[in-house]
Amino acid sequence: MTVAEIKDDQNVAIVIVTYNRPTLLAGLLTSITSLERKPNFVIVVDNNSSDSTKDTLRAFSSRELGFELIVKTLDTNIGGAGGFSVGVQEALNTVADWFWLMDDDVVILPHGLEKMMRWTGQFKCFHAGRQDPNGDHFFCEQWVSDSLAVQLPFLKDPYEGKGYFLTNYGCFEGMMVHRSIVNKIGLPDPRFFIVWDDAIYGWLASKHTEVAFIAEECLQKVRSQRKISVGLRHLNDSSNISRYYAIRNRKLIKQYYKKYNSYIPLLFEFGSFLVFSKEIVRMIFVEKSVKGLPSLIKGLVRRKV
Fold first, then answer.
1. Counting CB atoms within 10 angstroms of each CB, which of 96, 106, 169, 216 has the fewest?
2. Cα–Cα distance between 295 and 85 in angstroms, integer?
């Protein structure tokens, strides 16, 4: 494993987007306070939660944390995409060199930030290894097809004994990105609301720098999901709103593919068919229900608007 020398003088901002999950948020913030190597800033974007999230944030704000806690409370829910767009902008307003982006349903493992910082001399955009709630490796590593515009799994272990592998995909559950890359590709696109906002962000970053996954596990997912095993990977359950945006957002993905000369109509539409089919498989085999079918149809209609 090749790891460049750690630069201890680098400032880090952790960016978290939360919505109506105060218990999960408290678990994540507690894990950050327990780190030996703490970030300089923790930015929490509250997507207009209607529960006790604000109370949770007030409780942490009153404590001596070892880092600056910045809370941005929004007047409306603008989705994960909008939340990370706001959060990254807030991070740019700090002196942080690195922005570590994560949802609220993970915790940072002991020494997680130290492990991440080992790679900052080698990459400008990379992703944390993750554990699932049982402590096993959460294998979500994938890449984006430049013609189909779908996220494709690896059929074998992409690490092959190395400490990292390169990809062109992004995930806002552990992406670490340098300020210089954000300055080149801009903020996450809030129009996505949810689904594919992070995949496109990693895809854009790969146009300017190497994008990597590291094997070292720095985060652990804490929210259990129904799933079925598919070789190295597994297929999780989803939600109707995610299904809707998975289809609707194809029109936004098409705009990016056209801009970067990757749009081939026949192949792109075949990719759309694959996305739709995957959601059908997910409903039938994971969720044992087709109640989400109207959301897929609605997404198809909105995609054409």
1. 216
2. 25
Other beta carbons within 10 Å of 56: 21
- Residue 9's pLDDT is what? 84
3-state secondary structure (DSSP) of residue 19: coil
* 289 in a structural domain: yes
Pair type for strands 98-103 and 175-178: antiparallel
What is the torsion angle, in degrees rounded to the nearest 10, for the CA atoms of residue 12, residue 13, residue 14 and residue 16? Answer: -170
Q: Do 153 and 55 share a structural domain?
A: yes
Instruction: Answer whether residue 233 shows pLDDT above 50.
Output: yes
Return the number of other C-beta atoms located less than 10 Å from residue 244's C-beta.
Answer: 25
Question: pLDDT at position 7, please?
Answer: 52
Task: Please indicate, yes or no, whether residues 63 and 187 belong to a single structural domain of this protein.
Answer: yes
pTM flag (> 0.85): yes
Smallest CA-to-CA distance from 292 within 251, 241, 245, 248 is with 241
Q: CB of 25 within 8 A of CB of 104? A: yes
The packing angle between helices 240-248 and 265-281, to 10°, is 170
Query: Which range marks the domain in which residue 119 is found?
Result: 12-224
pLDDT at site 4:
46
Residue 6 is assigned to a structural domain of this protein: no
Distance CA 99, CA 41 (A): 9
List the Cα angle 274/140/265 in 5-degree steps. Answer: 25
130 — phi, psi (to 5°)?
-130, 150
CATH of residue 60: 3.90.550.60
Across 13-38, b (16+ Cβ under 10 Å) vs e yields bbbbbbbbbbebbbbbbebbeebeeb
Indicate if the pLDDT at residue 31 is higher than 80.
Answer: yes
The rounded distance, in Å, linking the Cα atoms of 67 and 84 is: 20
